[in-house]
Amino acid sequence: MKGNLSSDHPLRHYFVEALHDTFRGEPTIESSEDIEAYLSELLVNFIDMENVFEIHDPYGRRIDSVTEMMMEADIRMNADSFAREREVHRHIGDFLLFWSGLFPEFLMQMKAPGSKDVLLDPVRQGQFSYHVVSTFEHGAYAHEAPIFKKLSDDFENYRYGLSLVRASFEGFARQGWTDGFQA
To answer: How many CB atoms are closer than 10 A to CB 76?
Structure first.
């Protein structure tokens, strides 16, 4: 992931604290330092919409449907390597966790009639994509595999946790501060 904020940026600190406070206060969410760090980096990374839609086909065209991302991730179709398969599945998991947790209203648009993703189950696909990433247990990926196993196994709880983080954003709006946290 490539978050563009410095390590001491206040927004990065906010995400870390919001995730930690939310997860600590919710008994249904099994949290750990590595999951909180991963999710805070995800939030920082996805501040930039270019990162939300970072998957491109071999011709440089941005892919914005999960169905097309799944084809791009399939080694039998468009993925030119197992590393590419892993990278795209990681992104699919991140993409679906982000949208379903923070902005679930986006899922209605994503699944609208005529959409390429109309038949997609975002939760099951997110879990599956993280599961695929978790199977890369050797070499450079070995240390990250357990994080993705947790994300796969507890996808719905982390999704719920992100919805609580969104509620904390919305708390700022109720206090009259609306710049920067609107969907």
So the answer is: 7
The model scores a pTM over 0.85: yes
User: Cβ of 119: how many Cβ atoms within 10 Å?
Assistant: 8
Residue identified by tokens 């509620």 is 167
Helix, strand, coil shares, percent, the chain, to 5: 60, 0, 40
Tens of pLDDT, residues 124-150 = 999 999 999 999 999 999 999 999 999
Does residue 6 or residue 16 have the better pLDDT? Answer: 16
d(CA 103, CA 143): 30
Helices 155-174 + 82-102 axis angle, to 10? 50
**Two tokens at 55?**
């998957």
pLDDT digits (tens, 9 = 90+) for 95-111: 999 999 999 998 888 88
Q: What is the pLDDT of residue 181?
A: 45
3-state secondary structure of 16: helix
| CA atoms 5, 9, 14, 16: torsion sign | positive
50 token code pair: 């270019």
Alpha-carbon distance of 129 to 122, in angstroms, equals: 10
| 3-class secondary-structure state, position 95 | helix
Q: Are 123 and 151 contacting, i.e. CB atoms less than 8 angstroms apart?
A: no
